[in-house]
Amino acid sequence: MNVIEIISTVTKIQARSDRMRRQGKTIVFVPTMGFLHEGHLSLMREGKTHGNDLVVSIFVNPTQFGPGEDLETYPRNLERDLELIRKEGADAVFTPDVHEIYGERFQTYVELEKLPNHLCGKSRPVFFKGVASVVAKLFNIVKPHVAVFGQKDYQQLVIVRQMVCDLNFDITVIGSPTVREPDGLAMSSRNTYLTPEQRVSALSLYKSLINAQALLERGVQDASEIIDSTTNLIRSCPDTEIDYIAVCDPETLIDVKTIDKPVRLVLAVKVGKARLIDNILLKP
Ligand code: AMP
């Protein structure tokens, strides 16, 4: 069994990273909020192909949750997470508490001007400010050469890439494919909120993405037609409340009217208590 370092202070993990860099190691970083599933584990496996020192963080970041969101009830299981991370052969886990990351007088945030104005940013106004800020901090704390993020959180991936470019972080960002349950539902820590009936409705997200792909293959290039069909499919399932369904440019996230180049179909739907997101690349 490999020995894994479990570190919860900033100074200790920074000192460790400095040591690893002096030894010529390539540090790969996978940030998570814990309650790990196969999606997270796939990022670790992907990460291992890009370097030889794998660091995973577990931190439920309060600044990305708005009032009334699920910060308090967000699922947690540290012991199980550590066991899963150990099995993946990671070298270190960073598990800070909130005070370690946000000291008493914390007041510096990272905000992007345009990308957060679309999709999830519209209904979660503080979300990407919190995400960008904590990712920037974790980058300075863990000092990785490479960082791996899931394509499931597509807007987050685009925002992190933009921030890395704008702020000149010397870090390669890898976008890793979405891992799904056997029936197609994208894995998410929040799937645990679903009742058995809602779990059936939740599958409509994936089904609607596949339906959209089929429509495009049949020659439907009008984005509004694709969005209407996606909307109807999801609405026909009980306990679903659509936040948004958008066909957008994969880089700017600006709405596209006619699909004459690759686009992302991106959606967010509340199924019961769970706010679920998913997306697909549509190629004409
Ligand atoms: P979270 O713990 O939800 O903050 O997610 C941590 C990382 O895992 C993010 O980069 C997510 O995009 C990624 N992730 C979450 N679910 C999946 C999934 N089903 N497939 C691939 N990556 C995922």
Structural description of this entry:
This protein is of the alpha/beta class and 284 residues long. It contains nine helices and nine strands. The protein has helices at residues 10-22, 38-48, 78-87, 98-101, 120-123, 127-142, 154-166, 196-217, 223-235; strands at residues 5-7, 27-32, 53-58, 92-94, 146-150, 172-176, 240-248, 263-271, 274-282. It has a six-stranded parallel sheet, sandwiched between helices. Helix 6 (127-142) packs across helix 7 (154-166) and helix 8 packs antiparallel against helix 9. The radius of gyration is 19 Å and the shape is globular. Bound molecules: adenosine monophosphate (AMP). Adenosine monophosphate binds at residues 32-33, 39-40, 42-43, 149-150, 152-153, 176, 178-179, 186-189.
Tags for this entry?
284 residues, alpha/beta, three-stranded antiparallel beta sheet, 9 strands, 37% helix, 19% strand, binds adenosine monophosphate
Short account of what is shown:
By secondary structure, the protein is α/β, with parallel strands linked by helices. The chain has helices spanning 10-22, 38-48, 78-87, 98-101, 120-123, 127-142, 154-166, 196-217, 223-235; strands at 5-7, 27-32, 53-58, 92-94, 146-150, 172-176, 240-248, 263-271, 274-282.
